Known about the structure:
By secondary structure, this protein is of the alpha/beta class. It has a single domain (29-282), classed as Rossmann fold (3-Layer(aba) Sandwich), CATH 3.40.50. 46% of the residues lie in helices and 16% in strands. The chain has an eight-stranded mixed β-sheet with strand order 1-7-8-6-5-2-3-4, with helices on both faces.
Amino acid sequence: MKRTAIIILDGIGSIILLGPWGRYQAAKLLPPAESRKLDVSSVKRAVIFAPHPDDEVYGAGLLLNSLVAIGAAVTIVYATGGQKYRTAVGGDRVEEAKAFANHIKAEACFLGFGDGELAQSEDMLTKAVQDFLRGAELVVVPAYSDYHPDHRALSRAVLRALPPTGRLRVLMYCTSTPLWPEHKIVYLQDSFTAMNKFFAFYRSSTSPRSINPFKITRIFHAGRYLGERVFWEPYWELEGIANARQKAERALPSNFPVLHKPMRWRKFIKELRSYKKNYNEKV
């Protein structure tokens, strides 16, 4: 009975967020930004930085699919093994990441830092990522304003390691929270089919209960920028490394809006309102 009630409430929350009311709220709460489609057709070598196994799929699944399709050489750098997160399914997230990387013919590299400890190891992390930047044309990292401290720490470390000049292209992704525009937004737009196939490799850390809120958040987000109900993958494209470094070092509002479960939609909207107010005061 309880499970049935939860499913019904989840469905109601999803419908509300994906319907006209949700798009209206998104238009009010998410700031406008210039956006354009992401073109990676000329990329020959890309490096994707992931704080934990599965973040590369949550943040850059469509991008990985596009890079694989054009035969680009892809390296996925995992800062941690995601040791802290476990579900009833169990499993080894490092082995899952290896299987996923092998499936898409990418190189998987593991830095071995402690899950949840990246903020205490940023200097070492900065040194550890430097070698992976050599020869890369495209570097993809978490947003420095993502909700998770490990994501923000990895972002800062990579920004510090990047050369101040050069033609290196840098994209920043978000995972389970809206990307609050501070740089030009570029995006990929596609079906969710490829993403579902990628998520299947991470049975110990993903489930419909985690994937569905993520998908709803993205659609809610896209309702503001694209004006249509589609799955999309947004990125910041950095045009100045120094400017991004400066922004990454500042204090940010702590109340990141994260939709953990569709039935928590009221809390999610409340957090968006509060975050918008605090964000505007700090910028």
